[in-house]
Each structure stands twice: as structure tokens, then as C-alpha cells.
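By convention, the C-alpha cell line describes the chain's fold. To illustrate:
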Amino acid sequence: MIKQIAVFFLLLINFNLFSQTDEEQIYKFTQVMDAVSESYADSVNQEELTEDAIKALLKDLDPHSLYFSKDEIEELNRGLRGSFTGVGISYDIIQDTVLILNIVKNGPSDKAGIKPGDRIIIVDNDTIAGTGISDEKLRNLLTGKKDTKVNIIIKRRCFDNLLNFSVTRGKIPVKSITAAYNINQNTTYIKLNRFSATTINEFKKFTDSLMTKKDSKLILDLRYNSGGYLYTSTKLLEYFFGKNKLVLYTEGVHQKRKNYYTHKNGKFRNNDLVILINESSASAAEIVSGAVQDLDRGIIIGRRSYGKGLVQKPIYLIDGSMIRLTVAKYYTPSGRNIQKPYNKGIDDYKEDLVHRYEHGEFTNKDSIKLNDSLKFKTLMNNRLVYGGGGIMPDIFIPADTVHYPFYYREELNNSKINEFIHLYSEKNRNRILKNYKNFENFKKQFKITDNILSDMVNYIYEDNIKKNDYLNEFKNNEHIKIQIKALIANDLWGNAEYYKIINGFDETVIKALEVLNNKNEYAEILRASKS
């Protein structure tokens, strides 16, 4: 293990982080590790000491230089690769019971005959139900090498006996686009959750089928998109610009400036574009929104983005573990680096979104603190923009704290509302699918009744006074009813149907449609600054 950390430092030396004069300090550190290993009074876990030392070193660099053990790498890369090997189900663990929510169409479980609403009792002779199983352990039981078999015993509603299924593990796609549909005759809505290896193919597939008119407009929803591959973000930008446009550049002390240009005339370079962002839009999502804003190509709507402008390079270590080391900063076309400050330490950095909330930034644009020393101008129309702390939208939309009261949002975050929805959907799945021929019928006709609200309140709360007060408020709150209906649709049909319902009441989406449907307003927002 001592050799491990020596190799780690040698890797950093090869990466030119240390000068020749620093080798004495590196030797000094290995002396300490050797002394602990050979002479310390008690036994020590050398692997833990090594990992702790690596983590401490990286922590002093910046918030995004991180260490990952070999076991953590697989989970880290799962969403970015665009697939993993498993049985093809989504599930929730509710009261020590594993409830299957959805099945991947034509996936291993679907082919074996497992259905949404089934409850997993046993996996390969390991009893799951009532054991307090963790999500990690269950995932390890269900995933494995391609074409290997796993035996799953489930309990199905209306069946007296348990059902036994032999499932052959297979490749399961992880979609980066969770919703794509035409929100009206001329406007396509796309919800992009991450920038993965499959994003461009997914984007092409959906836009080829949806954006068929010459004047088609696009709402690209990057809210809660934490980023992904830098390369994927620049490839996506190629759809929106002409050839040879600079959309990004990166530069570091040990890395020369690298420019990223578009290589072709983008298919949608002349189509009106709105991008939605919020405080959880980060990294690659900020590259896309920053380039679109800097080049006056489209309109950014929402709230200030996260503020991650650092580029990490993966460096694999001798035991299969890995560090993601910050090697450069990225800059939008106007020269903005949107990385927020981290000079007050990692803990303060991690609390940044909490600080923003406490300062009122989520609900009041005037509460946003902008650095006047980091003013920039957009490259086409000379509009004022800022660096050093995320992308500021062209149109600010406050977080909805009025229609969704605190106590409701709290239970939504604690998963109690989702638990109730999953149980309701499982119990009523067959009845709903029988009464409503398709999703469109459900969307138009299904109502959230007082009985549903009463059952939900009873499931969530124990205090009878709260039950009565909250039930009365829920009955008079159409936004809550719409969200509950959307969550049920998500369980029964999927993510796209959730957004088809919820977007009709989403203030950010409503504003995007308003701007796209008003050519004068769209042009005015992008108009050249008079200052």
C-alpha cells in the first residue's frame, strides 16, 4: 500500500504538477507512511491511510478534484456510458418491501414475464422482503455479467402463490433524455438529464421525428442537469450554430488553450431556441447555456446555474482506483469562466445553494450578488453578462414556494408522497388502465378526488390536527392535485407523460412558450445593448 501512494505521487509528477524541487517533499511524505507502517504501536489499515491521504491532498486543491475507489467507479460511470448490465427494472423500497415500478420494454424482466406492481420476495435464495435490505445490496444482487441468470421470486396482486422467474441479465439502456414531445404544433420540448455517451444519438432520434417543420421551435430543459461529458456538450452545440463557431475553450497552467469549434452547419441553426436552467444545472449544462447566451443564439430562462467551470481528467491508479484531477478551466466564447469561488473551503462551497436560498435568491432576482469586476459582453449583440458564479438567465423565474407549501415539499423530498403514489398506482393499476384507454384519456378525464387526498394525508401524517389542516389545503390546491396526477402517470406510463401533465402548470415552461410565440419579445430580449 505504501508503494501505491508512491506510485500515485509519481503519476502526479509525470503530470507536471510537481517541479523537480518538490521531489524532496514527496520523499518526506513516503518516509512518514513507511514509519507508520513499520513502527506504529498499533495495527493500522494501510489501505485506508493511503486513501485518506489522497483525499486530503485533493481536498486542498479544489472541490472537484476527487478520489474514487474501484468499487465506486462502476456506479460513477453507469449513467455516463448510457447502459449497464442488469435485469431492466426500476423499483422503490417501501417499508422493507421491494416494489417494482416499471419494466424496461423488451428487457430481461419484460421477456421473463415480470410486471410493474410485482413485489420482490427472494433473489437467488436471498430473502429480500422484510429484511431491511439496502438499495446497494439489492442492486448488487440484480446486476452482474451479461447473459448470466438470476432467479427472482415475486408476489403478485390477486395471486395466492409466489411466482418464480429465471431472468437472463442483459444490456440495459440508461436514457439521458427522459422526455421529448411536441408541446404544441410548432414547439418541441426536450428534457435532458445528463450529457452521456448516447445523448447525441438520442437527441437526433427525437428531433428527427418531432422537429419536422422548417420553423420548429425548441425548449431544451437543462434544469437539474449536473453535466457529464464535455465532448458531448460541444457536439450538441453543433446543432444550433453555423460552421467554425467557437463555442468553448479550455486552459490551465499545464494545459495550453484548446479551442472547440463547430465543424458543420447545424440542422437547427436558424430555429428559435429557449434553454431552461436552475441552480442545479452544472458543468456541461452550463457550457451549452453559456455558449448559446454568449453568441446571442437563444434565450436562457430560469435561475442562476450552479457555477462549475473546472475540467477534470481521470487518472487511474495502480489498484484500479481513480482520481478526477482538475487540469484546466473552461471558458465560454466571450471569455467567461463561470466557476463560483471556493476560497472559503470545501464545506462552505457545498453549502452554496443553501446560502443562496437563505439570501432569497431563489425567489427574488434582486437578491443575487453579481461580481461587477467580472462583466462581459455577448459577442453578437453586446449584451451584458457575468462570469465567476454560474450562468445568469435572460429571464428570471422564481422558485415556486407559493403553490407548493413547505410542508408538502418537505414530504416530497422525504419520499413519503412518492411512497404513497407508488402504493396507490400498484393497487389501482389495472382499474385505471381499464377505465382509461390511453394516456390522453387519463390526462383529460382522471381527477384527484378528496378520497385520494385523504388517503395520502393519512399515510404521511400522524398528527390529527395536521391531517385536517393539510387535507383542507390540499383540496383547494390545484397545483398539488396536478403534481399528484403527474406522479401517478409517471408510474403507469413513464417520465414523458409526467412532463406532459406537469409542464402545463410549470411557470418556466409557460414563460418559454410565451417568448417563443411572440417574435417581438424574442427579438427584444436578444437585441443589442444600448449601453
